[in-house]
Amino acid sequence: MKRLVATVLIAAMALVSSVVASANQAVTVRVWFAGTSEPMMRVVNEQLLPAFHEAHPGIRVEVDYIPWGELSPKLLTSFAGNIAPDLFMHGQAATAGFASAGVLEPLDEYLAESPEMLEDFGASLDAGLYEGRRYMLPVYGSGSLLAYRTDFYAEAGLNPNAPPTTWEELRETALKLARKRGNRFEREGISIGISGTAAQQDWSPFLWQNGGDLFSEDGRQVLFDSQAGIEALEFYVSLFDEAIADTREAQALGNLPALAAGTVAQEFTNPENLKAIATYGPEVYPNIRVGQPLSRVQPAAWYSFAGFFMSKQSANKDAAWQVLQFFTSPEALELLTYSLSGLPPRASLAGVQHVAEDPNVVAFMQGLSAARFNPNVPVWVNARDALARQIERAVRGLVSPADALRAAANEVRQLLADQGN
Fold first, then answer.
1. What phi and psi, each to the nearest 5 degrees, are found at residue 116?
2. Are the C-beta atoms of 104 and 138 separated by less than 8 Å?
3. Alpha helix (H) ranges present in 17-159?
4. Do residue 249 and residue 398 come from a single domain?
5. N or C: which end of the chain has fewer CB within 10 A?
6. How many CA atoms lie within 13 A of 17 on its CB side?
7. Of 287, 238, 293, 236, whose CA–CA distance to 259 is shortest?
């Protein structure tokens, strides 16, 4: 398969016009990949780069692999020194900060010349949207959907083919699935985030499902302390009923996630965790199933993408665009998403083997129709942390859900004011 895909890559990319330059006067495009995943590096070094260079003799691509933890500091230093890479990979959360600093090249004009890309990427392009302009081409994605144990459903008299679709059904299901011995949970009816990013990512879909939002469309107004938000947090806190879930984080058993270990019956999880279950608990994985986004006013689920950005400092933007088109082509993304256990961002990849062969990955692809993303606002990281702190306080009964959200909103409004919004 690898040889076939590489052959297709060469043939497909040869159809894309290359920069007019001779081989001995090749334009150099520097690209930073995020992370040092061995499978990803093998795909890039052994398949993608040779295929690109064969199809584009006038462009030489220099690739560096930057650990995620070092990525932002290195980028800030490179931008300050005017030595930034032409293209770099990062998570969508980086969009607002870099775009507001004026160091990113908008991709809208390039995309306007490629309507097939606009259609195929679809809503995933919104992950890199900031103030009406697109700055990122997604490479791979993740999401959070309800995963559950079909064997536990059957044991509790529930239909394994009918997971919850509403808030009420979720709570009823969790009550039936929970098992306690005295004051100790043998099996939680559901596990959801209590603190940190897990709390924010698990709670936000309830806000969206209830018709609310985190920020206004222009990112200048805080909206999550609305009545929709308060109702969403009240329901979220209710799931920590002593008959349903513990207020301690569910723990993995070694390499085995809690869902596979059987200490929780259902949880909001992502494709990476499912991959871990398939790897370390293959005997359990056939009992793991993924549902579709819950709905109250509307269906919604949290999704996120990482992708490539173009530096405004690039002296070879046309060549960089050709490289970017190549690395985000269907043929390249099939290889990259498989190597990273991520979701393909292009609709045309929904039927590729590593997606189609796993019904749970198919479920995540279907859930993209209700995908919502964290807002691209420059203060987001601090805003997220403030919101997560207050969600935890509400979960632990220190403040009411309404007071928790108002406290978080006041803190975030001050962040916006300090920024001048």
1. -65, -30
2. no
3. 38-43, 49-55, 68-80, 95-100, 108-112, 115-121, 150-155
4. yes
5. N
6. 3
7. 287
Whether residues 185 and 332 fall in one domain:
no
- In angstroms, the Cα distances linking 419 to 60, 101, 218, 415 are 40, 12, 14, 6
Total count of domains within the chain: 2
| 231, 276: one domain | yes
Question: Is the distance from CB of 243 to CB of 176 less than 8 angstroms?
Answer: no
Residues 349 and 201 grouped into a single domain: no
Instruction: Please state, in angstroms and rounded to a whole number, the distance separating the CA atoms of residues 302 and 293.
Output: 9
Output the pLDDT for position 130: 93
Q: Residue 134 half-sphere exposure, CB side, CA atoms within 13 Å?
A: 20
pLDDT < 70: residue spans in the chain? 1-24, 421
The token duo for 363 is 């479920």
- pLDDT digit string (tens) for 295-332? 999 999 999 999 999 999 999 999 999 999 999 999 99
- Which among 126, 139, 136, 162 is positioned nearest to 369, based on CA atoms? 126
Can you spell out the DSSP letters for 197-251? Answer: HHHHHHHHHHHHHTT--SB-TTS-SB-TTSHHHHHHHHHHHHTT-TTT--SS---
Q: Domain span at residue 368?
A: 2-142+304-372
Q: What is the pLDDT of residues 176-228, one digit of tens each?
A: 999 999 888 999 999 999 999 999 999 999 999 999 999 998 899 999 999 99
Query: What pTM value is reported for the model?
Result: 0.86
Helix (H) or strand (E) holding 196: helix 196-209
Question: Of 414, 411, 409, nearest to 226 (Cα)?
Answer: 409
Kindly state whether residues 28 and 89 are assigned to the same domain.
yes
Is 150 exposed, middle or buried, given 0-12, 13-18 or 19+ CB atoms closer than 10 A? middle
Distance, CA of 216 to CA of 360 (rounded, Å)? 33
CA distances, 6 to each of 90, 101, 152 (Å): 25, 38, 43
Q: Within this chain, do residues 290 and 367 fall inside the same structural domain, yes or no?
A: no
pLDDT at 248: 83
At residue 341, the pLDDT reads 86
What is the Cα 194 distance to its own chain's centre?
Answer: 19
